[in-house]
Amino acid sequence: MARRQFIILFGLIFLALGLVLSPLPVKAENLRRIAIFSQDTPVEVQEAIVQASSSTILQRLSPFPALVIQLPPDQPQVALDILQSYPEVEAIEEDTSITAQSLAGGIQGSFVTPIDPQTGKEQYTDHGYRWSMRQIYRHKVEGTDGDRVRVAVLDTGIDTTHPDLSRVVRGGYNARAGEDPADYTDRNGHGTHIAGIIAGNLAQLKVKGMAPRAKLYAVRVLDDAGGGYLSDLINGLLWVYNHPEKNIRVVNMSLGFYQGSTLLHQVIQWLKQQGVIMVASVGNYDCTIPASEGGDSEGGDSEG
User: 0.70 cut: is pTM over it?
Assistant: First the structure.
């Protein structure tokens, strides 16, 4: 029953505010790869193999025997051939781009926010929720306010100085390769927006989040422009998995991508075995391309 209530609280976040995702923009050739080695391959051997291919090591995905690398721009195929010639290399996956924003076309129509004819302002319910939360029957689960629930928000970070969030953010981690692990500040706004939907606490906005007594962990997997890579997402999930003492019960991933990963699938399965509820967005745009990978494809619960 508790699991069902948490899914109601967190799994319909996007429906509540009408947020959307657009298809990923076309980018130049992606030279980032995830090199997966056999389980017993020492770290120093992994690094030596990557260096032999003239590739650059960007990040280690511990406890996986895997390295995030960048192929040399002048001879990427030669580097791949060298890597694949080593028996220790089990697989090489593309480090797919991920995004959380409407960065390029694909959205048709618009979302309408009902306005109170008396005040000319957005309508709220008598429970303090936005009108759209009533549309998903949030008021039907009164008494489930997120007390003692900890949620990891994998996004652009969270603005911990925001008056509605300053008391609910318990810490965080920057999972992005090459950045300061302690810097999970949101300089984009998307992660802070999502955090407010989840746990806004009425300090300033006169509106409650879905679970106003929940505590949040900001896990930065997207950059200031709202984009990132699959390896950053995997690293963020690994941080949650490697810190069971934080007792994170829900992971929210309001982002999209178009290619799965064996490592992503594995870490999600590990987290589910720990009892963590996984929430991922899927199908949040109106366009003619296939829906991006979402919660169902990797073993999580989907937002519509």
Answer: yes
